[in-house]
């Protein structure tokens, strides 16, 4: 965009100087001076156009709420097993890393198969609202990363399952709305609490 603007201004400057010279309204010294002034002004004009307005705190919070809503919409679509709604939350190209080793998804065909396999595995699924949400976003609100936790309830044939999942998603602005570019999920290991050995007990075993 900067290059295009530069060339447009340069051509306009040349045409104006050419017109004035042909009409004999400027002599050669005046033309050189005018050209020099325009050459100094062009970078200033381009610089004024290049820096977008900084977002306010309220605008930043609004963008972060929109990012969270995209993740929630993804989860709701998954619960309803609605692939069309799910795709609405995704970018034109995506990359996902699953909980299984070697599960790397880079095409929509692979993504569709993986999500349908998940849907066929359960009769019912439910995601809780997001917890432990952490969002990093660029200053122009075009690229963002979100980390979160979510509880996952599922059942199959009367057998229930409950997991706590950690998730990470990268999002970008596409056609004015946030969409998911990549992501991964992991199931945290349960916390192991070591049982201390009671050294106060006296060995009462009698040896014969």
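Sequence proposed for the structure above (208 residues):
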């Amino acid at each position: 965009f900067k290059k295009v603007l530069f060339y447009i201004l340069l051509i306009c400057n040349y045409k104006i100087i050419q017109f004035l010279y042909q009409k004999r309204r400027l002599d050669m010294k005046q033309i050189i001076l005018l050209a020099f002034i325009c050459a100094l002004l062009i970078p200033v004009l381009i610089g004024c156009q290049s820096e977008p307005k900084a977002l306010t705190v309220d605008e930043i919070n609004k963008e972060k709420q929109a990012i969270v809503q995209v993740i929630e919409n993804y989860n709701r679509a998954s619960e309803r097993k609605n692939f069309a709604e799910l795709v609405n939350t995704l970018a034109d190209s995506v990359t996902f890393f699953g909980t299984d080793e070697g599960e790397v998804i880079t095409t929509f065909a692979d993504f569709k198969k993986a999500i349908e396999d998940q849907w066929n595995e359960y009769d019912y699924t439910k995601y809780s609202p997001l917890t432990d949400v952490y969002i990093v976003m660029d200053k122009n609100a075009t690229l963002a990363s979100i980390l979160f936790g979510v509880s996952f309830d599922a059942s199959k044939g009367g057998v229930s399952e409950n997991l706590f999942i950690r998730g990470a998603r990268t999002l970008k602005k596409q056609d004015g709305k946030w969409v998911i570019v990549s992501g991964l999920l992991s199931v945290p290991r349960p916390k192991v609490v070591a049982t201390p050995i009671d050294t106060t007990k006296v060995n009462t075993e009698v040896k014969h």
